[in-house]
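Retro notes, structure queue

What went well: the backlog is down to a handful. What didn't: a couple of records were mislabeled last round, so from now on we paste the full input next to the output in the thread. Example, using TIGR03503 family protein from Photobacterium kishitanii:
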Amino acid sequence: MLRRLWLLLFYVPLCAWAQTETRLTWLDNRFRVDPEIEQITFVVTREQPSQSVVLVAPDGRKYYADRHSKAMSWYSDKGMDIISINHPMAGPWQALGKVSTNNGIRIISNIQLDAHQLPAQLYQTEVLKFSARLTQNQQPLLLRDFLDRVQLKVIFYPITSDLSNDTVDESTAIEVGTFADNGHEYDEVAGDGVFTVALNIDVVPGKYRVKIASTNGVFERSVEQTVLVYPTPITTTFTQSHRSLISHVVNIETKPEQIVAGSLAAYLVVKQPQTKPQILQRSTTAPQSQLELTWLNDSHVGKAWWRGWAYVTDALTQRELVFRLPKQNYTQVAIVTPSLTSPLAQQRLEQQLAARQTEQRQQRLLWIAITNIIVVISAITLLLLWRRKRTLKHDLMLPNELK
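Corresponding output:
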């Protein structure tokens, strides 16, 4: 029984691994492609130093990294070639070069790119988590050497519409985000074949064709969707204080017809001169549609900034929306009394300053006089005490006859 259990533990992982890739380590580096395969990718690990391999087709044609068929995409990296072929010729293929005897050649076939469906209605400046994954035979593709070199991007193509049809403008492509499978930020697990991106919809409102595609030639796959981008449903204004201990104000207001009342919440990070960053958090309750976040002007002079996030709920779809509040810099300056442009007011101000200076001068003279009087009185007092002491000493002297 124990022996059977060990056999199961040994063979089950091998079977699972065999479903995702085929490894070839034949001495002549030959591998056979079956007729039913529509797309295949060769991951060739080379010894170092070495040049890219030469790929030989069953009919004897040779293909190189810089000279190959249009049906191929060839990615050459240090110590590795990744070659993808659409509708490959059936039969024995061969890779000529310093192929590693340890890793050899891995074959991946029928790769598919699956992406989550984007909401049909997006908002300008919205940020949302978006995922895509690579599969082989409807199973997650987990070949790390391959995944580390995949570069997936999200590209928006504007669509212009007229009465007859829609026209996609390929010349004005807008790159909105790059996927990652590294376990950082929005990506949950590194190397699990699920690529994640925080899409920042920083495009003008309109209709777009969205394309998710590999952009570095590792393989040719893409997914396309059509979306509508609407104007942002929130308005953010910043009012800077120019008076000491009077608050700076960030006001966030939502459009009642688009956003659920009471669903607004906000998070700000504020950095003032000579202080550590502080965090401000507030939320609304029904039926409120706006909120204010404030912090005191601490009168320190220098550069300051704030940034944050706003969270709301879409009234139509009940979708939770996230908006990034971009970093805003401002400068806290010294408090200066505003100048008076009226000549009469200026004259009055000069008279007040002159009167104040006269008063201060009189006060200084008064203090000097008082100080001098105190000094004279103190000197006279000391002199009288000294004379009295001498008189007493003289009276206490003995008569001559008693000496």
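Agreed that this is the format going forward. Reviewer comment attached to the example: The domain at 22-109 is CATH 2.60.120.380 (Jelly Rolls).
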